[in-house]
Amino acid sequence: MMFGQRLACLFFLMFMFMNCTQASTHYNFVVKEAPYTRLCSTKNILTINGKFPGPTIRVHKGDTIYVRVHNKGNHNITIHWHGVKQPRNPWSDGPEYITQCPIQPGETFNQKIIFSNEEGTLWWHAHSDWLRATVHGAIEIFPKKGTTFPFPKPHKQIPIILGEWWKKDILQVLEEFVVSGGQPNVSDAFTINGQPGDFYNCSKPGTFKLVVEQNKRYLLRIINAAMNEILFFSIAQHNLTVVGIDGSYTKPLTTNFITISPGQTIDALLQTAMSPPNRNNRQYYMAARAYSTGVNVTFDNTTTTAILQYKILNDTVNDDVACRLTGQPLFPYYDLPYYNDTNSALNFVTSLRSLANQDHPINVPIEINKHIFSTISINTFPCPNGYNVNDTCQGPNGTRLAASMNNISFVFPNKIDVLEAYYFHINGIVRANFPIFPPLLFNFTGDFLPLALQTPMNGTRVRVLEYGSNVELVFQGTNLVAGIDHPMHLHGFSFYVVGYGLGNFDPKRDELGYNLVDPPLQNTVMVPKNGWATIRFAATNPGVWFMHCHLERHLTWGMDTVFIVKNGKYKQAQLLPPPPDMPPC
Questions:
Q1: Per mean pLDDT, which range of 12-16, 246-250, 350-354, 438-442 is the poorest?
Q2: Residue ranges making up the domain that contains 183
Q3: Which of 330, 372, 460, 482 could cross-link to 473 by cystine, CB 3.0-4.6 Å?
Q4: What is the mean pLDDT of the chain?
Q5: Integer Cα distance of 390 and 325 in angstroms
Q6: Residue 278 has what pLDDT?
Q7: Are 143 and 111 in contact (CB under 8 A)?
Q8: Does 201 lie in the same domain as 214?
Q9: Is residue 3 in a domain?
């Protein structure tokens, strides 16, 4: 090759590299149906740009991007930017009938996404009905230009998206669930990057494979996009070093598995070996299975897998040839916890600590001026008159299952969203009296609780917070109907998880054990079964912000509420005006 040709080739490669690594500021999301085949059958699913999982968004810390969402599908939809705080800009946050009315078929909404101090991995997903089952994707947030990771630069960065797959149409699954009044049908498979893996029928050819080189460091951006299950994740004969959660850095934590709740993201470094741990086998399963502790609660007890493959050295042909391997990949039999391993689940989540150094300081609220104590419960409603008990009241003893926070089962408005009602002073949509304490005190985690406690009140109740309030919120799990873990997610904020415990929260005892030095900064917290978790945050983001359990069935049942943070004194602390193309109701 002549020198000029070599130089031209070099410039072309440099150009391609720059275009692959630079963050775009404008994205075009087309919502449309696309056929996908999994588990021996084909169905149409809702996608973004025909992709499942959807496209990855790449930004730098502090960027602002613009996403044009055009709905060519057959259903209303909204898109939520999970964990992006959107300072002063709830208009683009996305939860249906909370901050916007849905984007109707044929319509378009131009969303402005404002990043602030997030750094690491977040994700985006649909926030209408259960459409996020297939409408989701990763957000990779790189350090601010001119700065670096607080850990050695990885050789490559790979999104690992954990999900669920149903053979039925997801909206049919939702409809049958709502009509029945009971538990939803469990998924037919879990997935890793959209593929079920080797242990399911008709799935082996599509299993996701991550080809790695020896003695290299990889950053796995792990996302739990599953609908209804907390998951364990592990890689055979390989440790992971956790360095971030929910778009915030943590102190390095080396572990042979992780526990990750729906909605959560974990950044983990994978250091490959100088030579494959097993010289006779260069393939290792990465595997995920459910963590589920609820009594009489059905769950998907299958295991999804992907393959970690060591590239054969000195083979420069291509990855396909370089990975000619024989034998079954090794499985993490001794590392992947069992379904009900509470000790492993809690040991992991309680071991996380913020990085909390000079370059990445933390600011835990110390002087608290707003205390909230909220029970989070599974409930039941009596079977309404005229309902067929066998078909529509399949909860315990012929009831309909529900869920609540402080005995309020949230009801979504359906004529206008909460944000517009608040901004334009429209009365009668919400009641600003969500209780800051449960209406009744009882042994929340007792084994035999009166049936009368199981029935909540319905309502669109919200809680108004003064701008600048330092909020402490204690989530208290209860054993009403069925105690279970709850991943609680707050829009518009990250919060410090200052404490966990089992049993009933006792302020005199448990506050003494709070971590106020280096608590992890998260947007989703796993509240343990029949236990509690305490979070703290400063209410410095004016707007309307949804809070809910990220188990989709619990959100549907009503384990939700809304915080309205009032404007501050100065313009920089006040809500931005609505964009001109807000979807109409």
A1: 12-16
A2: 150-358
A3: 372
A4: 94
A5: 53
A6: 67
A7: no
A8: yes
A9: no
561 within domain boundaries:
yes
* Same domain for 449 and 507: yes
pLDDT digits 0-9 by tens, 519-545: 999 999 999 999 999 999 999 999 999
**Which residues, 6+ apart, have CB-to-CB distance to 119 below 8 Å?**
61, 141, 142, 143, 144, 244, 247, 248, 249
CA 429 to each of CA 406, 420, 557: distance values in angstroms, whole numbers, following the listed order? 20, 10, 19
**Closest by alpha carbon to 494, among 62, 89, 85, 60?**
85
Neighbours of 549 (CB within 10 A): 28
Cα(577)–Cα(585) distance, integer angstroms: 18
CA dihedral angle for residue 442, residue 448, residue 452, residue 457, rounded to 10 degrees: 60
Q: How far apart are CA 529 and CA 502, in angstroms?
A: 8
What's residue 374's pLDDT? 99
- Does 323 map to a domain? yes
Given a contact cutoff of 8 angstroms between Cβ atoms, the answer to whether 45 and 164 are in contact is no
Residue at 416 is within a domain: yes
143 and 203 fall within a common domain:
no
Q: Are strands 240-245 and 209-212 parallel, antiparallel or unpaired?
A: unpaired
Last residue of a domain, one of 312, 336, 358: 358
Domain CATH number, residue 161: 2.60.40.420
H or E stretch at 446: none
Mean pLDDT of the region 313-321:
50
Beta-carbon contacts of 495 under 8 Å, excluding residues fewer than 6 positions away, are 473, 521, 522, 523, 525, 535, 536, 537
Burial class (CB in 10 A: 0-12, 13-18, 19+), 428: exposed
Q: What is the CA radius of gyration of the chain?
A: 24
Q: Are 350 and 500 in contact (CB under 8 A)?
A: yes
Tokens 């690992």 belong to residue = 160
Domain limit, last residue, from 117, 147, 177: 147
For the stretch 97-129, what's the b/e string if a residue is b when 16 or more beta carbons lie within 10 angstroms of its beta carbon?
A: bbbbbbbeeebebebebbbeebbbbbbbbbbbb
User: What's the pLDDT score for residue 112?
Assistant: 98
